[in-house]
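Exercise: predict the fold of this chain.
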Amino acid sequence: MDKSSGEDSIPPSAGPSRIPFFCASRVITALLVVFLLFNPLSALAFDLESRVKEFTLDNGLKVLFLERKGAPIFAAHMAFKVGSVEELAGHTGAAHMLEHMLFKGTTRIGTTDWGKEEPLLEKVDSIGEQLDIAVREGKDQNTIENLRAELNKALEEEKKYIAPESYSKIYAAEGGVGHNAGTSWDTTTYIIRLPSNKFELWARLEADRLENAVLREYYAERDVVLEELRRSYENNPDGKLFERFMATAYTTHPYGRPVIGLGPDISLLSISEVKRFLNAWYVPNNAVIAIVGDLKFEEVQSVITKYFGFIPSRPLPERVVAVEPPQQAERRVDVEFDASPTLMMGFHKPNAPHADDYVFSVIDSILTLGRTGRMDRSLAQKKKVALSVGSFVAPGDRYPNMFIISAEPRPPHSTRDVEKAVWEELERLKTAPVSKKELEKVVNNMEADYVRQLQSHYGMARLLTHYQVVTGDWRDIIKEMEKIKAVTPEDIQRVAGKYFTRDNLTVGSIVRDK
């Protein structure tokens, strides 16, 4: 279950019409407020079911809209159902690389003269491809150095016509904030918040980006991504542990690969492969747009149809993803690093809409929801074997994933001491039913946190696109909480007994570099 939150606040639901000079209306309004306070899930369902409007263009683009009066702003999320799981073997990093490249502009944005830049860019791409092939095939060093010199010369020529950071400058000048993007295993999303009177500007810019993207400055950006890989994984103990942990837990499915890609693949990732990825997946029939804010449905429908409606749809490639075989034995991996010891324990589990997925959401909160979670109270406060302990579900949601527990031992205790204490809490879930009082408290806290997530325009837009892309129906935002509220102590015992086993366990540890 998503746990993020935002800054904007949601206004109260409209409720019944107010009738001037008729005191009964005040009684009705007061009763509604009480109802919403004590029934947040019912309030959420009432609010979303009645107010989220949707339409689909002829080219397959799905649009979700939620009007929220108040501050004259809106949040826009455009999500594509494509992530690193769609990458071809040997070409990992294409999804993330493309996300970077789509900030470089179009035939209109990011250039001072596209007519003059275009032939120079074609020359850059041609020499760059030749250089990559020469390196890949192990050509002699003179050939490689000559091609590299040609490429640098061509880049300098093209650079005269590049207008860097154009999107950021345009959006910032028009009051935009949070202009960003993100790639995951499952999806790629582009986001922005703008004043309401800039909605048409947003539509014009984003439709142009979808239709006329230009992948300029590719080779410089590839070096940026390689540096990001070194910083986030190779030179970061937590990143390196997570990468090795996932590679150990998944033997077949691409969830075992980092979203950023593998170093050898990134270093020679061809621009032709990134262009192929763009043309294959960045089409309107593979996208969902969510708009939340102070706009009118008629305006949203009209403007989006005007700017996005002419972009043609294309048949999507087959989504061939290997099925991860059941784990048959415990797996372990140690990462040597000059850093504090850290423990990760993971168990394979099904994803939604499997019923057990919702039980895991409850187990997650029972174990690690703040200082009242069982793990914190036992490992950190009582036994004092851990400085911190948490749990989460990773890496994605479109395919079966993992329930992961992470902890940092408290000196002089070791990761083995923490692992033993974690197992004691997991066994307790199997043998002793969670009390009705504890379960009710946990679910109430989850419900309150979930409602808070929806208070910001940003959070609401993000959840609408996420659920529409991943589950196929944004209404699962509501249904998920309903299913969580239906979880019983017996469900928790059954799920804990089924999945928390040694044969289904992967353990990763950071150990001091000797």
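Check your answer against the key: DSSP finds 19 helices and eleven strands in the chain.
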